[in-house]
Amino acid sequence: MILDLNLEILESGWGRFHSDNTSAREELKLAYGRAKENAIGIFRSKCRQTTNPSNPNCNIKGNIDKNSDRRNYYYPGCPQYEFTIVEKDTGENWFCTEKEAQKAGFTKALNCP
To which H or E segment does residue 31 belong? Predict the structure, then answer.
């Protein structure tokens, strides 16, 4: 029953796969991959963004590092800017100014000029 629920959550795009020790690991990982590839649930453009659809002029990306929980912001011109994805469901967000990003607890990424 739990496997069915986990599989349903991942297939519908409403959860993230985290590696664990289960016999269903590969099945769960594939379901997660399909949801991400098909951009459904939390992977649709409303949640996972490379550009700001609601205000293109506010183009500073607030990003949370999954390994360290460090809250970085990137602006156009930062080396990783183009590759940075804003995942709204995890607390990441768009900002219009650096001051606004800093007020929200984000720090300029170390590799930004």
Answer: helix 25-37
